[in-house]
């Protein structure tokens, strides 16, 4: 078994007075693709945000590479090699695609060069001088992921990256995830698109009401479809 890169134990998180996470427990090993499944409001995005310190109060344990991170500010978590791609993407509209790629700081050695980014995302090379506002939704999503890869982060938290995109783009994103996994990246996906996530993940965690209610491996997917129908309506 590869080493444990992320371990969350008894994680509670709040937004103001709202208690969103209720004792989340999960582990992610180096080189894995792990998917958090659940309905909207189940707590999946809040789990991602809690890992990087972007919720309100947090209680419990978040260990990254064995180091406790529950009290760290977001920029300190990033320096532990964590990259978060939020659902809203956050592209700088007035900057070109390539200028967006030049912005991220180096947080760890081994970040991808511009040439390596363009090899993985040929669309971005074609649109290198286009302002962010002119990029399609799919191109913006590729750019959002590519910016993280520039930083040297090896643990990637990807939130709903396939949402609202054409099937041909979703397929390209699936190929991207498999290529990153082959390069040794560790990926945590939050996905509503079960058909996109199902073939990619090594393991699945199902969330409901801010807690993990089930976990299983890729090999156990078929025997858990009944349970997923109940929790997800897939």
What does this structure look like?
With 234 residues, the chain is an alpha/beta fold. The chain has one domain (4-232): Rossmann fold (3-Layer(aba) Sandwich). The protein contains nine helices and ten strands. Strand 4 (58-64) and strand 5 form a beta hairpin. The chain is globular. The two termini are 31 Å apart.
Structural class: alpha/beta
Gross morphology: globular
Roughly what is the average pLDDT, rounded to an integer?
A: 93
CATH class: Alpha Beta
- Poorly predicted runs: none
Per CATH, the architecture is: 3-Layer(aba) Sandwich
Order of helices and strands: EEEHEEHEHHHHEHEHEEH
The domain count comes to 1
Helix-residue proportion: 25-40%
Q: What amount of the residues lies in strands?
A: 25-35%
Strand order of the largest sheet: 6-7-8-3-9-10
CATH topology: Rossmann fold
Major sheet: 6 strands, mixed
Q: Total number of helical segments? A: 9
**Quick one: CATH superfamily?**
P-loop containing nucleotide triphosphate hydrolases
Strand tally, please?
A: 10
Radius of gyration: 17 Å
End-to-end separation in angstroms reads 31 Å
């Amino acid at each position: 078994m590869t080493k444990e890169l992320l371990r969350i134990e008894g994680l509670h998180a709040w937004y103001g007075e709202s208690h969103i996470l209720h004792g989340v427990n999960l582990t992610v090993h180096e080189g894995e693709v792990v998917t958090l499944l659940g309905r909207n409001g189940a707590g999946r995005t809040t789990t991602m945000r809690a890992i990087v310190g972007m919720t309100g109060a947090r209680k419990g344990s978040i260990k990254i590479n064995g180091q406790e991170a529950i009290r760290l500010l977001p920029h300190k978590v990033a320096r532990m090699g964590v990259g978060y791609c939020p659902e809203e993407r956050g592209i700088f509209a007035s900057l070109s695609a390539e200028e967006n790629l030049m912005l991220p700081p180096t947080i760890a050695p081994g970040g991808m060069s511009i040439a390596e980014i363009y090899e993985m995302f040929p669309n971005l090379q074609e649109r290198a001088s286009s302002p962010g506002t002119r990029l399609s939704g799919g191109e913006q999503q590729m750019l959002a992921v590519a910016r993280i890869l520039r930083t040297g982060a090896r643990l990637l938290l990807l939130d709903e990256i396939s949402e609202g995109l054409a099937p041909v783009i979703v397929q390209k994103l699936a190929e991207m995830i498999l290529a990153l996994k082959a390069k040794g990246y560790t990926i945590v996906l939050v996905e509503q698109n079960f058909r996109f996530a199902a073939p990619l993940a090594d393991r699945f965690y199902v969330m409901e009401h801010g807690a993990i209610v089930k976990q299983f491996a890729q090999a156990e997917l078929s025997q858990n479809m009944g349970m997923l129908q109940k929790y997800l309506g897939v």
